[in-house]
Design a protein that fits this description.
The chain is mainly α. It is built from eight helices and no strands. The longest helix has 30 residues. The N and C termini lie far apart (86 Å).
C-alpha cells in the first residue's frame, strides 16, 4: 500500500518484523503519511485521551464485577468495529459539508482515501481476529495452529488499537481537529445506548452512571482541550477548511531557547542595519569642532 508520500510503512518492515506483532501494528496503523504532532502538549493530551478511550472500550464494569468474559470481549470488538465503520465516515462527511464554504472535497481526496483504507484495514483485522478465535475453539486438529494465529492477531489488533485511538485512522492528515472530534463522538455513541436501555451490566444505578459516563466525559474534556490549544496556539479551527488554515508554528523544543523569525518581518525593502564592527568605536567627529587647526591647511600638508 502506498500513501500520499511514498510507502505506507515507510520501508520499516522486514521479514523478522512479523515475529513482533506490536512492531507490525505500529507500521501498519501509524503509516508514514500521518503528519507529526505540531505541539508537544497536544501530544500529551492525546495520550491521556487514548487511555480514557481504552477504559471506555474495555469497560470498567468488568473489573468491578470481578471477572473478564472473553466471549463478551469478542462481541464488543465486533460491535466497536461496526460503530467505527458507520460513525467515522458519517462524522467526516458532516465536516466536509461544513467545510464546503471555504474549500472543496477534491483538495482532500488523497488524505481522505488513505484514512478510509486505514479504517478498513483495522476493521478487517478485528473481524479476522474474532473469526480465528471462534475457529480455534471449534476445530480439533488445527486448534493449535489457529490458536497461535489468533494470539498473534490479538497482539496485532491490541497494539493497533492504541495507535488508531491516537491518530484516529490518520484523519489528522485531513484536519488536525478530526481525531479529537471522532474520539468524542465514538465514545459517546458507545456509552449512550447502555444508559438509554438501562443496561448497567449488573452495577447499581449510581455506579453504572459513573463508570459508563466517566470515560466519555473524560475523553470529551481532553478533546476540547486539544482543539482549544490547536486553535489558540496554531490558528487551527475545526470549522475551517484545511486548505484555508495557516501552516502550524514549529513546536517548542525545551532548551532550544527562543528562535526569532528569519528574514525581514515587515516585508521587502531596505533592511535595518547596524554597525557590525566595534560597538564602542568612536563615531565621526563633529566637523564644526576640529580644534585649533589651520583652516587653510586642515590636513597638515
Amino acid at each position: 500500500m502506498t500513501g500520499s508520500h511514498g510507502s505506507w510503512t515507510g520501508g520499516t518492515l522486514t521479514a523478522r518484523s512479523f515475529l513482533k506483532p506490536k512492531r507490525v501494528a505500529e507500521a501498519v496503523f501509524h503509516p508514514a503519511w500521518i503528519p507529526e504532532a505540531v505541539d508537544p502538549e497536544v501530544e500529551r493530551l492525546k495520550r491521556v485521551r487514548v487511555i480514557a478511550g481504552a477504559v471506555a472500550a474495555v469497560g470498567v464494569y468488568t473489573f468491578v464485577q470481578g471477572g473478564f468474559a472473553f466471549t463478551e470481549m469478542l462481541q464488543n470488538m465486533l460491535t466497536a468495529s461496526a460503530v467505527l465503520l458507520f460513525i467515522t465516515p458519517l462524522t467526516v462527511g458532516a465536516m466536509l459539508f461544513v467545510w464546503r464554504r471555504t474549500g472543496t472535497v477534491r483538495q482532500l481526496r488523497v488524505p481522505l482515501g488513505n484514512s478510509f483504507k486505514l479504517l478498513l484495514a483495522f476493521v478487517g483485522s478485528i473481524v479476522l481476529t474474532v473469526l480465528m478465535w471462534w475457529l480455534a475453539a471449534g476445530v480439533g486438529g488445527f486448534a493449535l495452529v489457529l490458536g497461535l494465529v489468533a494470539i498473534w492477531l490479538t497482539g496485532f489488533v491490541g497494539s493497533g488499537a492504541v495507535k488508531v485511538s491516537g491518530n484516529f485512522f490518520g484523519t489528522a492528515a485531513v484536519h488536525r481537529c478530526l481525531p479529537p472530534l471522532l474520539a468524542t463522538v465514538t465514545t459517546w455513541l458507545m456509552a449512550i445506548p447502555d444508559l438509554a436501555t438501562g443496561d448497567l451490566h449488573g452495577l447499581s444505578l449510581g455506579m453504572g452512571v459513573v463508570f459508563i459516563l466517566g470515560a466519555p466525559v473524560t475523553v470529551t474534556g481532553i478533546a476540547a482541550l486539544e482543539m482549544y490549544r490547536l486553535r489558540s496556539r496554531h490558528g487551527i479551527r475545526l470549522g475551517a477548511h484545511p486548505a484555508s488554515l495557516p501552516p502550524p508554528r514549529p513546536a517548542y523544543t525545551p532548551g532550544a531557547g527562543y528562535v526569532p523569525p528569519q528574514g525581514n518581518p515587515y516585508g521587502s525593502g531596505p533592511a535595518y542595519t547596524y554597525n557590525q564592527g566595534n560597538p564602542y568605536a568612536p563615531g565621526p567627529r563633529n566637523p564644526y569642532n576640529q580644534g585649533p587647526q589651520n583652516p587653510y591647511n586642515p590636513h597638515g600638508f
